[in-house]
Specification:
6% of the residues lie in helices and 38% in strands. It has 156 residues and is mainly beta. Strands 1, 2, 3, 4, 5, 6, 7 and 8 form an eight-stranded antiparallel beta sheet that branches. The chain is globular. The structure holds manganese (II) ion (MN).
Length: 156
């Protein structure tokens, strides 16, 4: 007998209001000590779907940013609401609804709501994943030495 996955994940869930879903509560963005501003996390699909993935919706309020970090696991990101700035590796781009962003293994990354509006992103990750690493002072020194333009972009 297959597991009754619909017991945990219904076939259909209608938006209650734009970017909000029934039974999907906003969570603390990060449990561990970290640096970020004005970010909520919602788990849309959990590993109960047997894909070994989680699909999360992060919403960065105007002026907010996600943690500047890297880790071995990758991020597959779809910009879902609004627009803002994405930093991947040493490149920054203005991103808006519909754009796709891929964060490769161990690449520095950060998402910022720079346009006076929320930036909402769908982010797919594997369930067994390593803990993010934040930059040391030496890391930042090395990044700014080779990419001085990032001094005005990275928020830590
Ligand atoms: Mn990350």
């Amino acid at each position: 007998m297959p597991k009754p996955l619909h017991a945990v994940t219904p076939a259909f869930r209608q938006q209650k209001e734009p970017y909000r879903w029934p039974e999907v509560e906003p969570l603390i963005y990060k449990e561990h000590d970290t640096t970020f501003r004005s970010v909520t996390r919602r788990v849309l699909f959990d590993d109960d779907c047997e894909q070994n993935n989680q699909v999360r919706y992060f919403e960065v309020a105007p002026g907010g940013w996600t943690t500047f970090e890297h880790h071995w696991h990758t991020h597959e990101v779809v910009v879902f609401r609004g627009s803002g700035t994405a930093l991947v590796g040493s490149e920054t781009r203005h991103v808006e609804q519909g754009d796709l962003v891929f964060v490769d293994h161990d690449e520095w990354h950060q998402f910022s709501a720079t346009d006076g509006q929320p930036l909402g992103i769908i982010c797919i990750v594997t369930v067994p994943r390593d803990r993010p690493v934040r930059p040391t002072a030496q890391d930042l020194e090395a990044i700014y030495a080779s990419h001085p333009e990032l001094k005005d972009v990275i928020r830590v």
